[in-house]
Records
---
Amino acid sequence: MYHLTDEDRLALAELSVALRLSLAERSEVVRWADARIQASPEAPPDWLVELSLSNQLHILDLTGLLRRLASDVPVESICRRALNRLQRDLTTSYEDIAMLAHQIYRVVGDVMQWDFRNPLMSDATWMDDMFGLVDDGYYTRDQAMDNFDDFCRKYLSPSSSR
C-alpha cells in the first residue's frame, strides 16, 4: 500500500494553500497524483485515485482532502513552501514588491490562521504594513524595501530578495 512520506504531506499541504490562494491549478494536483500512481507497483489507495480524478471535485472538497492527507505538517514548513511559489513573478520595482509583500501576508495569514503570536505572522504583517506606512509618510520607500529584503533573508530561499 502507498505510504505518504513527510515530503508527500508537505507537498499536499502546499498544494492545499496554493489552490485556496489561486497560486496553483487543479492540474498540478492531478499531475502529482498521477506521478505517484505511475511510480508505485501496487494498486493505488482510494485517496490517490480521487486526487488523480480531482478535476471532478468541488474546490473546497479538494482542498479539504489535501489538508486531511497533510496532517501534522509544521505550519512554518508549509508557509515557506507556499511563499516560494511567489518568487516566479518577482521584479524589482517598488510597486511590484509592495504587491508581493501583500501576497506574502495573505499566504502567511492563511497558513498560520491569522495567529499573530507566531513570529512569522507578525513579521509578515509588519513587512506588509510598512508599505502602507510609506504612503502615510512614516517611512521611506528604501526603508520598506530594506524591511522586505530582511523578511526574505529570514524566511525565504536565497533567490527571493531583490
Note: The two ends are 45 Å apart (CA to CA).
---
Amino acid sequence: MICAGSRLGEDVQQLMREGGEGEVSGIYSTSFYLRFPGNQLLLFCRRDMGGIPFAAGLGPEEIEALKDRMFIGMPVRAEKDGFVFGKGEAAVTFMTPITSQRKPDTPRACTPDYGRWLEAGKLLREIVSVAGTGDGAFFGAPFCTYAAPVVRELIANAADPDREAVEQCVSKLLGLGIGLTPSGDDFLSGFCYGVLRMEGQGGRFGGYLRDSILHLCGQKTGEISAAYLRASAGGKDFQLMETVMEAVEGKGDLREALAKLCAVGGSSGKEMGLGLYLGIGAYIRGR
C-alpha cells in the first residue's frame, strides 16, 4: 500500500466520496488512466502538472510503484480514502482531506487588464524561444498555419456570435494533430477556458463554444483529450490556467505563470497557453 500526499481534482474527490468500480484503461511513461462507468476517466500523473479536475497528482516514485503492479483492464475500486487495484495487489491511500460536498458551480467572470494581456503575448513568444524551441515550434507551427483561418473566424464570431459558425470552427479544430491530446484540442481547451473565465457562465459566445465542444468532442477526438475538453468546457478549474488568468488580472507573476503552463507536456502547455491568450482576446474584441 502507498500512502501519498496529493493534489486531488474535484472529480477524483467526488468519486471517492461516492465509491465505484472501474478498470485501468491506459498506462504511459509518467502517468496512467482509470475508466469508471459513464466513460469517466481519472488521471494519475505527476504533481507538477498542476491541479487538473479529473486528476490525482503523485510523486514520480509513487507512480512507478503503482505502474509496476498493474495491467490494462485491471479492476480498480474507489473508496473514501483512496483506490484499490485488483484483489489488493496495489492500493493508494491519500492523506489529503476530502471535502464533504462538491463546491457549487458559480459564475467566475474575470476583469481583464488590457496591458497585461498584451504583455502575455510578448512573454509567450519569449518563453518559447528561451525554452529552445523557437517561434517556429509554436506560433509558426504547422498546426497554427493550418488552423489560423479557422481561429480568425472563431474570434470574429465573438462580437456577434452565430451558433452554426462557432460549431463549424470547433469541428475543424477538434482532433487536429497527433498524440493523446492533439494540438487542436489543447488549443480549444485553453481558448474555451479563457472565454468562459472572462464571460462567466452566461455569455452567448462562450455558451455556443461550450455547447459545441461538449456535443462534438466525443465524436471527433480520443477519450483522453475529450476528458480535458469536457472539463474545460464545463467551467472546472485547471490550476495552471487559472494562475495565468489571475496574473492577467494583476494578481500574480505573469512570466512565472505562463512559463509553468508552457512547460506541460511536449507542446500541450504551449498550445493551451496560446488558446488561453486568444480566448481572452476574443472576449476583449467582442465587448
Note: Residues 34 and 201 are 29 Å apart (CA to CA).
---
Amino acid sequence: MSPPFSTRLFRSDHLDQFRAQVRYSTGTRYLAGDLPVVILVLDSSVIIAAVRWMVGGRRKSGARSALQEVAASGVAMMVAPQQLRVEVLARLEELVDEDGLPASNLLAAWAELELYIRYLPDNPSNIEIAGPLRDPTDRAFLVAYELVAASGIVTFDKDFAAMGVHASDPVVLIDLRDFARAKSEELGVTTSSIVGLTVLLAMAKAGIATLRKLPPFVSVPLVMLGLLAAWKYRSRIPWKTFGEVLAPMVASFADSRKRSTEAVTRITARLPLESPTDLGKLARAELLLAGGPLSTPALEQAIRARRDCQDRRPLQRRLLDLLRKDSSVVYEKRKWRLRTA
C-alpha cells in the first residue's frame, strides 16, 4: 500500500489541471510521462448501466462510477451525438416500470453524468458513413467517432466492432480509472521530491550568498568550523531517519509507476492511443480537447505537440484550407472552435 503522503498533492481529479500546465512546457512535460488523452464516444447502453448503478446499486453515498472519475480526471474526453440524449431519456422511462426506480432519481443521476459529456453535431457535411447499418440510430455515433478521431466507442453493443470501428465494453473505463489513480500517486511523489530538493538547494544557495558577503577572515573560519562540526558529530546525523523517509517514497513511486504502466498496457490492448494522421481529424480533436477557441498558430502548436511532429514546414496554410471547408468548425474573432450541437 502506498504511503499517505503520496496522494496528498495530487488526486486523480487534479490530472486535468496538471496536463494543462505542462502541455506546452518542454521543461516540465516529462513529468506527465505517458499521460494519455483518450477521446471516447459513449453509447446509451453505458449511460444506462451507470445510471442504474448510481440509483439502485451504489452502496456508499457520494461514490462515483468509473465513468465519472475518469471524466473528472481528464484522462478521457467523453463525447456523444445528440442521439444519445434521445435514447437515454426514452430508456429511463422504461426503467421506471422495469426496475421500479423513482423517475426523479433516474433523471438526477442522468443530469449528473451529462455534465461530463460534450455533444457533437449529428450530421456534419464533411463526414460520410458508407453502407447500410443494422440499426440506423448507430449512424450518429459513427459520425461522432470519425469527426474527432475518437480512440473508440464505449458500448455493450457488438454491432460497432462488427462494422470495423474500435469499440470496447466499459471495462476500459476501469482501466482508465486505475491509470488515473496510479498516475496521481506517481506525480504526488515526484512533485513532493522536487519541492523538497528545491527547498534544500534554495537554502544552500542562500547560505553561500551570505558567506560571500562576509570578509574572508570571517567566512573561511566559519566554513572550517562547520566542516569540523559535521565531521565530529557525524554519528548524530539522522541518516536512518532520512532513509526511513526516502525508502517509502521510492517504493511508492516504483509501485505507482508499475501500476500506471500496467494500466496503459491494458488500455492499449482494448483501444488505439496513437494520434491520427489525418490533419483535419487532428485539428478537430485538438479543438475539442482545448475546451475553447484556438487561433491558427495555437492550433498548429497543439497539433505538433500531440504527434511530436518533426516536420518543421508550416502547417497553417494547409490547416486554413481544410478548416475553411469544414462545416463542423466555426471561425469567430480570429479563432477556431468546434461546432457543438
Note: The first helix runs from residue 15 to 22.
---
Amino acid sequence: MKVKNNDFTPASLPPDGVKIDQGVFRSENAKGQPVLWILFNADPARDAAWEADGFKNAYSKSAWRREQLIDFQAGGGELVLRETLERRWKEIIITDPKEIPWAEMNFGAGLDYGKTHFGTWVVNGIDRKGVKYSVLEHGATNLTPNSHVEMMKTRRLPYSDNGAQPLALAKVGRTHFDPSLKTAKLSAQSDTFVSEIDLFVKAGMPSLTLGIRGRDLKIVDLILDAWNQTPVKYRIFCPTQVASRQNTHSGWQGCPNLVWELMNLRRKEYSATVEQSKGTPEDLVDKDNDFWDANKYEWSGNTPVSTQSPAEAWSNEAKRLKEVNPALDLNSLVIYARKFERENKVVPKTWR
C-alpha cells in the first residue's frame, strides 16, 4: 500500500485496476464484469490522520485492514482473540468466585462431542445487566456419552445456595448441542439407528436443544464487542491457567481449557495461489477448539437475561458484599446502596 497526500490504493487491487476518483477504483473479474472498489478515503473527511488513528485503536489490526484497505490477505493465521484478551485480562478473567453475582443469573450451556476428540460441556451464566460469564467446563477424551453425563452430574457451581454448592445440571436451563450429534448411525449393539444425542438423553442429560453451526466468526465478533465495552460484557472464571488442554475432573474449577483455546484461536491462512480463488480467509482453524465449540453453541443459543425484581437484585448484591467483606458496617452498606441505586435507577427497599 502506497500513500501520498491521502492517496490510498486497495491492497488487493488487481494489476488492471484503475483509479476513478479519490478512494474509488474499478477493475474487472474473470468474466469481464466490472468491480467497484471503494476505500474509506472516498469520504473527504477521512484522511491519513484518520487512518493512522483508526488503525492504532482498532481491536483487530488485520480486521481493520480488511475492512478499510480491502486487503484480502490480512488476517491469515491471525490469533483472533488473544490481543484483546491480554490487553484487558484483569477485567475479563475472574479468579475469585465471590466476584460473580451467582444468585442473579440465568444459566445455559453448550455441548460438543466426538469419539476422536474432547467431549466438552461449557456452562455460561448471564446476569440482569446482560453480562455473560463462563463459569464451568467439563471435558474428557475417549468417553461414551453415558460416562460424560455421569461426570457432569457431579459438577457443582462454586457458590452456596441454601448451604450447599448447587449441581450445575440443576441450574442450567438449556444445553445447546452440535447439530451433527443428531445424525443417526447404526448401533453395533442393538443393530438399530441411534444418534449420539439420543445416547446423551438416555444417560439422563436434561434440556437439550439444537445449536447452530458455522457461526464461528460471528461469535468472535460478539465476544470482541463484549470485551471492548466498559465495563466488559463477557467474563471468564479461571482461578488457574493451564499450559495445554487437560481432562477435567470433579474438583476442576472454572474454565482454564476454554481460556487456553481462546488464546490460541486462529484464522485460517491460505497460500497466495489459493487466495486468488478463495479471497479473504473467513474461517477459523478447526483444531484444538472443542471447548470453544461448546461455548459457541451456548452463545448461538442466546441464554435470556435474568429478570429479577430490583428488591431481589439489591438483596442478592448486599448478600454478596457481606460475603466478600464480613466486616462491612451499616454506613458502608448505605454507600453501596446509593451507588446501586444510581447505576440501576432503582431504590433499594432496605439497606440490610
Note: The radius of gyration is 25 Å.
